[in-house]
Design a protein that fits this description.
The chain is mainly alpha-helical and 86 residues long. The protein is built from four helices and no strands. Helix 2 packs antiparallel against helix 3. It starts with a helix and ends in a 5-residue tail after the last helix.
């Protein structure tokens, strides 16, 4: 799958993770520009924008999936393999 196919898939049928990441990126851009327009120092502006992006990422991820961390089917199988319930 090439880059073009990835972009088309993101624009036409995004996964829940892609939706959460897109919401976080838009939030970072909006908060950064808001802080820049109000002459907030650069370090505070950057840290605030990234923190807002993380908050939005986790809230949107939870709203879409009902979990803070998406399920990892591979990781669950591996965890079951090493469990003490043998």
């Amino acid at each position: 799958m090439g880059f073009r196919d990835d972009v088309v898939q993101f624009l036409t049928n995004p996964t829940d993770e892609q939706k959460a990441i897109a919401a976080a990126v838009v939030t970072i851009i909006v908060v950064d520009r808001y802080a820049w327009l109000h002459d907030i120092p650069f370090v505070v502006q950057s840290v605030g924008a990234v923190m807002a992006g993380f908050v939005v990422f986790f809230v949107v991820s939870y709203a879409l999936t009902g979990e803070f961390v998406p399920p990892d089917e591979e990781g669950e199988a591996e965890a079951d393999r090493f469990s003490d319930d043998s």
